Amino acid sequence: MKLELPYWTSHHNMILYSLLHYCEENNEVFDVSFNTKIATGGAILHNNNQMIFLDYSDNSVFLDNPEKYDFYFKRSLLFQDYKGNVHPLNLQVNFSYKAVKLLMKLNFKDLVNKTNRTEIVRAMDYFNLVTNLSHNAMDVRDFPKKTDDHNGKIIFHSRLWNPDNNADLDEKIRRASQNEFRIEACRIIKKNFKNVSVGLFPDELSKKIAPELLLDIKHTSKKEYFKSLRNGDIGIADDGLKDTPGWKIGEYLLFGKAVVTTPLRTVVEDFKEHTNFEKLQNRSSYLELPEKIEYLLEGKRYLEVGENNLKWSENYLHPKNYIRRILNITKNTL
Q1: How far is 184 from 144, CA to CA, in rounded Å?
Q2: Which residues are paired to 158 by β-bridges?
Q3: I need a surface site. Which of 21, 221, 281, 288 has the fewest CB within 10 A?
Q4: How far apart are the C-alpha atoms of 6 and 40, rounded to whole Å?
Q5: What is the pLDDT of residue 137?
Q6: Do residues 258 and 271 lie in contact, with contact meaning Cβ atoms separated by under 8 Å?
């Protein structure tokens, strides 16, 4: 088995570290190379003379033509595009696994390649001394193995995107709508519940339009965020870039949290309303949040949903099954 990447970005951490885990478990050679002809956000997995394209784009538009490959797996896959040799990658999560060991398996020329620099530095920052996204802080081995009860604590840490920083009118409107949801969601949760950890990243836009919701900058690193997430029970999620699920929702699942989310427009296998999540009517329906949260709080229903999500994440997100699932699909559809 061989994996080709255009260069190493945070979008590739999931596949890179999952491959390392799979190779360890199955005593296979970890074979990764870089090919700049591959579209950014994409990857090609070669296995048993099959070419498998992995599309990690936030956008629902395909990075490449599926007809060029034996199989095409896509994150942000719309329901109408789920056909033929196209399969979902479900949700995206940024995690690591034995980051230093992965670095030792890469070729020296790839370690000094400036296009790989950001993730190389993050992987080297074992003690979280320099980077906000240190790979040690995201090591999947440190994620919870079971759900704990924190008396229904609600978590929603988010950020705003400035509409003025984008020239496209549709994108300006999308960002304004997204910002409205995130601000009003924080406000209505704080107003109706006491056991909460909600707020916005303290950038200039947030300071200007929602100063009462600012998070402490000391607690906005990935390491500190995961500490907060570990102590939560119900996570609030909304669409990320391109109106597709962001990485936050996958993190909730890996930490065994119940979820309240805006509607999911993309294919997520075996992920069911009332079993794995509660759904708002649309991305402007922040007024529905208290009702959805109260439903999960009733009889501590959030614990059952959190347990369901921990099991789901083990099957679909965790590196011990991530590669195996892809290979099983390519094997069973021959």
Answers
A1: 30
A2: 200
A3: 281
A4: 6
A5: 93
A6: no
Quote the crossing angle between the two packed helices 13-26 and 319-332, to the nearest 10°.
80
172-178, long-range: CB within 8 Å, 24+ apart, which pairs? 174/243, 177/283, 177/284, 178/238, 178/239, 178/283
- What is the C-alpha to C-alpha distance for residues 92 and 248, in angstroms, rounded to an integer? 9
DSSP lists the bridge partners of residue 196 as: 154
pLDDT in tens, 28-63: 999 999 999 999 999 999 999 999 999 999 999 999
Model pLDDT, residue 128: 87
> How many other C-beta atoms are found inside a 10 Å radius of the C-beta of residue 309?
27
* CA 209 to chain CA mean position, Å: 27
Q: Give the integer Cα–Cα distance in Å for 21 and 321.
A: 9
> Residue 43, exposed/middle/buried by CB under 10 A (0-12, 13-18, 19+)?
buried
**Where are the strands (E) in the chain, listed by range?**
2-5, 32-34, 42-47, 50-55, 71-75, 86-90, 154-158, 196-200, 234-237, 258-261, 277-279
- For the chain, residues with pLDDT lower than 50 are none
Which residues lie closer than 8 Å to 128 by C-beta, 6 or more apart? 134, 136, 137, 221, 223
Q: Which long-range contacts (CB under 8 A, 24 or more apart) does 23-29 make?
A: 25/320, 28/1, 29/1
CA angle 190, 191, 195 (to 5 degrees): 45
**Cα gap 235→233, rounded to integer Å:** 7
Q: What is the Cα–Cα distance from 71 to 62, expressed in whole angstroms? A: 13
Q: 């999931």: which residue's tokens?
A: 14
Would you mind telling me the total number of residues written for the chain in this entry? 334
Side chain identity at 235, as an amino acid letter?
A: G
pLDDT tens digit sequence for 231-259: 999 999 999 878 899 899 999 999 999 99
Q: Side chain identity at 330, as an amino acid letter? A: T
Closest of 304, 239, 252 to residue 274, by C-alpha: 304
